[in-house]
Specification:
Layout (H helix, E strand, L loop, with lengths): L6 E2 L6 E2 L1 E3 L2 E2 H14 L10 H20 L16 E4 L3 H4 L6 E4 L1 H9 L1 H7 L10
C-alpha cells in the first residue's frame, strides 16, 4: 500500500491530502465541480440554419404549387378532389424543393399513399428508394 503525504492545499491553505490541481478534495469539489454544474448548456437546435432556410423556400414553393394545381391527381376511393397536400414522390431530403418530384393530393389520398408504399410505387405515385436514379 502506498502512503501518501499530506501537503498544503493552495486554496484553503490547510495540510491535507492533495487531490488535483494542488487542491484538497473539498476545495476541488467546491471550485471545479461547481463550475461544471453551473455551466449553462445550450440546447441542441431542432433544425440547422440551412434546414430553416430550405423550409422557408419550401413553404413558399408549396403554396404556389397548390394554387397552380388545385385538384388532386390520385383520385383514389374517398378523394375530396381539392389539393391540400404536396406529396414528395422521391424522399424529401435533397429532393425537398424539386418540384418535378411533387404530386398535388388531397389529405385522404395522401394518407392512403403514405400508408401503403408498395401500392404507391406500383401505381406510380412514388419512386422506390432502393433504385438509384
Amino acid at each position: 500500500m502506498i502512503k501518501r503525504k499530506k501537503k498544503v492545499c493552495e486554496s484553503c491553505k490547510e495540510e491535507r491530502y492533495i487531490f488535483s490541481k494542488h487542491m484538497c478534495l473539498f476545495c476541488f469539489n467546491k471550485t471545479v465541480v461547481q463550475k461544471r454544474k453551473n455551466k449553462v448548456k445550450k440546447p441542441i437546435p431542432k433544425r440547422s440554419k440551412k434546414g430553416i432556410k430550405e423550409d422557408r423556400i419550401y413553404y413558399q414553393l408549396a403554396k404556389k404549387f397548390k394554387e397552380d394545381n388545385p385538384y388532386c391527381k390520385a383520385k383514389l376511393n374517398g378523394c375530396t378532389h381539392l389539393t391540400t397536400d404536396v406529396h414528395h414522390m422521391k424522399s424529401r431530403g435533397i429532393n425537398l424543393n424539386k418540384i418535378e418530384y411533387w404530386l398535388p393530393l388531397c389529405r385522404n389520398c395522401h394518407n392512403k399513399i403514405t400508408e401503403d408504399s408498395a401500392f404507391a410505387i406500383r401505381e406510380g405515385f412514388s419512386f422506390s428508394r432502393n433504385k438509384i436514379n
